[in-house]
């Protein structure tokens, strides 16, 4: 074999071996064989192919070759025995060649060990995804951009009572026709199932002939920036619809009774009018209390979701962090080995040294040595930041708490600041002036909600760039938290009403008017007070004072 041919073989990523079929002796190899199997070229040329390709089916094949049956093999998985006894997973091909009238067997193989590991990880991920789909409380349908059903869970098929023959035959068109035919809004349903590349998320309600009502939410499925399909979630809201209808009927009946009673009251004296006014005030307070309760339940659901997301993220982050740390140690070892090799440059012959220098320049070894450490350090810092965000989510949610517990208010402030940082970073600089307050007996997640409302309001009060200061302090009986902003301030006529339910100075659609009302209720429940000092154009300062013991 001439030098150019050997050079080409040595720079191939595949393992290349030439085998003499009568003796099964290896008569030629490239450098990849030496590197991956850890044999020297001299050792390999003294071996038979069956010394490394020793699986039972491979032994039968090579015996057939020895007997003159030179069958080609295309992409067959196998295992090669390395010098240390370990087995290397490969995908190999074998072809019979003729050279100077003699037959030679050319073996070409590539290392697929990493591919197998990736396939195992992918299979595990798909299994986890399927388990997640099956465990959700909604019926899930996934349609790819070709209009074919990519996935569905069992709850979806049960909800829609899809015939078994359609499921067994994987009749996508039949299944979609079954869905559209089962609802009163058939054309709307079909149009929604065909809008597969729509950027928007949608919500629809479909009424089945059986009287059941399904709420359908859909959103695009993306691969990077490209939409590759659409995910539909179906929730049976029949009971909720019935409850809402009953509530409307009760409301209508109540309104009718109010009208009737009002007509009677109009004929009564001033005392009855005062009683009517008092009842209307109580009804208003009841409505406010109901809205506050709904808001509190919504925040509890958000906390539950945040804690779940934090838990799910925490597990992969843990093993990725461990692996990157281990990789950092391995990289340091390899760099030490490289330095040891470089120290031996003087012992190399001139041609070998020139070849090493060429490779060293091709890979820019000096830059690689300098950059690999920085890359791994930055990766570890990024993982630490992700772990910090996950911990802040868990600290903020506290979904399991039902009783008061001892907690550090400053830690709660830090967690809340981290969660609202994205809202504040474009509006204001945040200055923390902590006094190192002691722990108090409280409900931490509820206090965190108070702090979040005050911080978000402070950010909204700043038109362009401003300053938000968070202070703490304490004495023998109480501690306090102050949140001060350099925003527009509050008009004097509004100061007496800011804690009223539904009162807001924000435009329609920008605020519910419940944030400060809820905060006031939470602080009062803790036996504390919330005060405000503000002047138009000078900013506002909210002070929350809490007892150190319940």
Give an overview in words:
It is a single chain. With 550 residues, the protein is of the alpha+beta class. Among the domains are: 15-117, Beta-Lactamase; 130-240, PAS domain (Beta-Lactamase, 2-Layer Sandwich), CATH 3.30.450.20; 402-547, Heat Shock Protein 90 (2-Layer Sandwich). The protein has 17 helices and 17 strands. It has helices at residues 3-10, 31-37, 41-45, 56-66, 113-135, 154-159, 164-168, 172-181, 186-194, 238-265, 270-343, 350-362, 365-397, 409-424, 444-461, 492-495, 515-525, and strands spanning 15-20, 25-29, 73-81, 87-99, 102-111, 139-144, 149-152, 202-207, 213-223, 226-236, 405-407, 428-433, 440-442, 466-474, 478-485, 529-535, 539-547. The strands form four sheets. A five-stranded antiparallel sheet has the order 2-1-5-4-3. A five-stranded antiparallel sheet has the order 7-6-10-9-8. Strands 12-14-15-17-16 form a five-stranded mixed sheet. Strand 16 (529-535) and strand 17 form a beta hairpin. Helix 15 (444-461) packs antiparallel against helix 17. The longest helix has 74 residues, at 270-343. The radius of gyration is 36 Å and the shape is flat. The termini are far apart. The model has no long low-confidence stretch (mean pLDDT 82). This is histidine kinase. Its EC number is 2.7.13.3. Residues 308-550 form the Histidine kinase domain. InterPro entries: HATPase_C_sf, HATPase_dom, His_kinase_dom, HisK_dim/P_sf, PAS, PAS-like_dom_sf, Sig_transdc_His_kin-like_C. It catalyses: ATP + protein L-histidine = ADP + protein N-phospho-L-histidine.
């Amino acid at each position: 074999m001439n030098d150019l041919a050997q050079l080409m073989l040595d720079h191939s990523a595949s393992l290349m071996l030439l085998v003499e079929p009568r003796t099964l002796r290896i008569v030629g190899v490239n450098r990849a064989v030496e590197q991956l199997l850890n044999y020297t070229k001299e050792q390999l040329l003294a071996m038979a192919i069956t010394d490394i390709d020793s699986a039972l089916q491979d032994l039968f094949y090579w015996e057939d070759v020895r007997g003159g049956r030179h069958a080609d093999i295309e992409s067959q998985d196998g295992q090669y025995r390395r010098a240390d006894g370990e087995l290397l997973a490969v995908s190999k091909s074998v072809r019979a060649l003729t050279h100077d009238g003699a037959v030679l067997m050319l073996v070409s193989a590539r290392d697929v060990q990493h591919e197998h590991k990736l396939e195992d990880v992918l299979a595990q991920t798909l299994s986890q995804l399927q388990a997640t789909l099956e465990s959700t409380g909604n019926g899930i349908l996934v349609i790819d951009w070709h209009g074919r059903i990519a996935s569905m869970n069992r709850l979806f098929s049960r909800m829609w009572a899809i015939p078994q023959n359609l499921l067994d035959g994987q009749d996508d068109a039949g299944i979609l026709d079954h869905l559209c035919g089962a609802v009163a809004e058939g054309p709307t349903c079909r149009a929604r199932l065909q809008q597969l590349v729509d950027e928007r998320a949608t919500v629809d309600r479909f009424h089945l002939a059986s009287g059941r009502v399904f709420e359908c939410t859909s959103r695009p499925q993306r691969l990077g920036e490209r939409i590759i399909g659409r995910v539909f979630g179906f929730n049976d809201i029949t009971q909720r619809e019935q409850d809402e209808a009953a509530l409307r009927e009760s409301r209508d009946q109540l309104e009718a009774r109010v009208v009737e009673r009002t007509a009677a009251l109009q004929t009564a004296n001033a005392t009855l009018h005062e009683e009517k006014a008092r009842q209307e005030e109580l009804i208003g307070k009841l409505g406010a209390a109901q809205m506050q309760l709904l808001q509190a339940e919504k925040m509890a659901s958000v906390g539950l979701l945040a804690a779940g997301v934090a838990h799910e993220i925490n597990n992969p982050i843990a093993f990725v962090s461990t692996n990157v740390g281990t990789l950092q140690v391995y990289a340091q070892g390899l760099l030490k080995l490289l330095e040891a090799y470089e120290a031996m440059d003087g012992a190399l012959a001139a041609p070998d040294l020139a070849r090493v220098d060429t490779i060293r320049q091709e890979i820019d070894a000096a830059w690689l040595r300098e950059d690999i450490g920085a890359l791994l350090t930055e990766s570890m810092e990024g993982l630490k930041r992700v772990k910090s965000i996950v911990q802040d989510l868990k600290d903020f949610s506290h979904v399991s708490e039902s009783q008061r517990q001892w907690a550090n208010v400053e830690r709660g402030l830090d967690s809340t600041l981290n969660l609202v940082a994205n809202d504040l970073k474009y509006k204001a600089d945040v200055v923390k002036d902590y006094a190192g307050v002691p722990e108090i007996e409280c409900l931490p997640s509820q206090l965190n909600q108070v702090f979040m409302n005050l911080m978000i309001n402070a950010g909204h009060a700043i038109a362009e760039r401003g300053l938000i200061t968070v202070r703490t302090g304490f004495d023998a009986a109480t501690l306090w938290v102050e949140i001060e902003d350099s925003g527009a301030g509050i008009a004097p006529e509004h100061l007496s009403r800011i804690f009223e339910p539904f009162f807001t100075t924000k435009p329609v659609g920008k605020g519910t008017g419940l944030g400060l009302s809820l905060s006031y209720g939470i602080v009062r429940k803790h036996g504390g007070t919330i005060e405000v000092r503000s002047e138009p154009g000078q900013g506002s300062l909210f002070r929350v004072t809490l007892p150190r013991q319940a």
